[in-house]
Amino acid sequence: MKWQGRRKSSNVKRGGPKGGGVALGGGGVIILLIMYLLFGKVPADVLPNQATQGGQQNQEYTQTAEEKELDEFLSVVLADTEDYWKEIFSQYGQTYREPSLNIYSDSINTGCGLASSNVGPFYCPNDERIYIDLSFYHDLKNEYGAEGDFALAYVLAHEVGHHVQKQLGTLQEVYKLREQMSEADFNKYMVRLELQADYYAGVFAHYTQENGYLEKGDFQEAMDAAAGVGDDRIQEKAWGQVIPDKFTHGTSEQRMKWFNRGYEYGDLDHGDTFSGDI
Ligand SMILES: [Zn+2]
């Protein structure tokens, strides 16, 4: 992706939020722990919306040269997502609220509880922040077989997709269902939620292409990432078998399909993953 010398988002924070007020919430810790136990590192996830209180201040950290470059790259990607979501929201008469990106190392206190880099990048709806440990870039390559900058861009665009879902109320609608059904049934909705975030990541690729920032191989890098983080592939690796009732993100094929669809249409209208076949 062509990113050097382009606008960087001002919504990027390194280390943790300043001034405290961010929480070590029990619930969030447990959820993160469960996700970790189930999936090992869970890339591209979204945490349940729950209030947490109290808390510690997060630490600043010093970045390596490679991390500095990844930081800059993600700042440009985030700026792009701001530009196109602002544009798309205004087409629907709405105002887009920009999320923040928190780049951290090892562990961090978030509005959804204490997170360690083991859980992979995620979006916390409570504080509307995306959290990423840059070491995930290597995990993408080594554990999920997805190389290149655009694989990482896909991951960030997917998390921004969850923020869009929060603004549109989709996230809240789905979380409400959690109390009303079995885990296996709820997981089916989670899959649809995740596939929609993949569609929104595809919208990002569409925008990048339209503006001439997409380079040869970029699209494939994102498709590899979407395939690499499919539930079936992750489960196969972790457990040696695939258990569809435990799917929360969709298969590799589904994730590639919805990403590709977002790339094709680049709008909100074709991203309904909740009705019909996925
Ligand atoms: Zn997700």
Would you give an account of this structure?
This protein has nine helices and seven strands. By secondary structure, it is an alpha/beta fold. The strands form two sheets. The protein has a five-stranded mixed β-sheet, covered by helices on one side. Strands 4-5 form a two-stranded antiparallel sheet. The chain binds zinc ion.
Total number of β-strand segments? 7
Straight-line N-to-C gap = 29 Å
Helix-strand makeup class: alpha/beta
Bound molecules: zinc ion
* Contiguous uncertain segments of 5+ residues: 17-30, 36-44, 49-56
Total helical segments: 9
Q: Mean pLDDT score, rounded?
A: 84
Largest sheet: 5 strands, mixed
The fraction of residues in strands falls at: 5-15%
Order of helices and strands: EHEHEEEEEHHHHHHH
**Shape, principal axes of CA atoms:** globular
Approximate helicity band = 40-55%
Strand order of the largest sheet: 1-3-7-6-2
Q: How large, in whole angstroms, is the Cα Rg?
A: 17 Å
List the helices and strands and how they pair.
Elements: E1 12-14, H1 26-39, E2 45-46, H2 65-91, E3 100-104, E4 107-110, E5 113-116, E6 122-124, E7 129-133, H3 136-142, H4 149-168, H5 170-176, H6 183-210, H7 218-228, H8 231-239, H9 252-265
Parallel strand pairs: 1-3, 2-6, 3-7
Antiparallel strand pairs: 4-5, 6-7
Residues 44-46, 158, 162, 194, 197 line the site of zinc ion.
What does this entry show, briefly?
By secondary structure, this protein is an alpha/beta fold.
Task: Please describe the structure with a list of short key phrases separated by commas or semicolons.
alpha/beta, 278 residues, binds zinc ion
